[in-house]
């Protein structure tokens, strides 16, 4: 699949009316989930369970290798019994929870109830931090009259995260895979967002961190721009080029 990854000032670009809308991925694009250590410690503290430091470090490492934190690292080794579920995990809330708690259960914890508690923790606003330039970019798009949508492969309602961090006023529509039973890279999910924004896909830019999932927007005719899924401190300004890209078109 060829991606129309627009870069300001690149050859073949011309000045045109700005894009009508920009679609953003959630995890790894606008927000980053907390570290596995922070995630585990928050849940243990809430349950009033203490682990010796070496045991805590080993448990956190095992959970990370298992890929148990949604939005975190993918599994190092995917258990065969979860392979089918993993492929469709974002199509429903039930499948998403089952997939990730299934992965966490590969790691022994002091109390079996902690597996569900870990899953519940990752859905809280406290578990997520917006990238440093996210608010600036979203605010600028709103000021320019450019529609903004969030298109995410996810199994839960992320709207409270945006509200808690003050970014919800800049988002016009949310298209979440579990609410539609369709997950990226299926073009239908991007089409739903374009329709909600009243925008022709040819006038829409998709911004995401996954060439596989977010790149699916290219099949619909959207331009696609990628950012790296890095820790917040390591990616202070990767979204800023979007403000230049929305005013440029492919010649």
From TrEMBL:
Gene3D superfamilies: HAD superfamily/HAD-like. The keyword Ribonucleoprotein does not apply. GO terms for molecular function: hydrolase activity. InterPro entries: HAD-like_sf, HAD-SF_hydro_IA, HAD_sf. It comes from the Bacteria. Pfam families: Hydrolase (PF00702). The keyword Hydrolase applies. This is HAD-IA family hydrolase. It comes from Streptomyces thermogriseus.
């Amino acid at each position: 699949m060829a991606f129309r990854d627009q870069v300001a000032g690149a050859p073949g670009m011309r000045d045109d009316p700005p894009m009508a809308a920009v679609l953003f991925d959630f995890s790894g694009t606008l927000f980053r989930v907390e570290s596995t250590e922070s995630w585990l410690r928050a849940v243990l503290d809430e349950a009033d369970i203490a682990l010796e430091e070496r045991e805590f470090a080993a448990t956190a490492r095992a959970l990370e290798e298992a890929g148990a934190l949604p939005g975190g690292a993918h599994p190092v080794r995917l258990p065969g019994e979860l392979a089918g579920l993993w492929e469709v995990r974002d199509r429903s809330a039930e499948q998403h929870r089952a997939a990730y708690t299934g992965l966490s259960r590969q790691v022994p914890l002091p109390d079996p109830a902690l597996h569900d508690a870990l899953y519940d923790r990752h859905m809280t606003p406290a578990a997520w931090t917006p990238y440093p330039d996210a608010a600036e970019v979203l605010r600028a798009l709103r000021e320019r009259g450019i529609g903004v949508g969030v298109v995410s492969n996810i199994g839960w309602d992320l709207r409270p995260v945006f509200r808690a961090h003050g970014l919800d006023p800049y988002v016009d529509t949310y298209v979440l895979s579990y609410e539609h039973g369709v997950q990226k890279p299926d073009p239908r999910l991007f089409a739903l967002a374009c329709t909600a924004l009243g925008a022709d896909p040819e006038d829409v830019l998709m911004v995401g961190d996954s060439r596989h999932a977010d790149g699916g927007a290219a099949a619909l005719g959207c331009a696609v721009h990628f950012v790296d899924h890095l820790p917040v401190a390591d990616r202070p300004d990767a979204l800023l080029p979007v403000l230049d890209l929305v005013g440029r078109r492919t010649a």
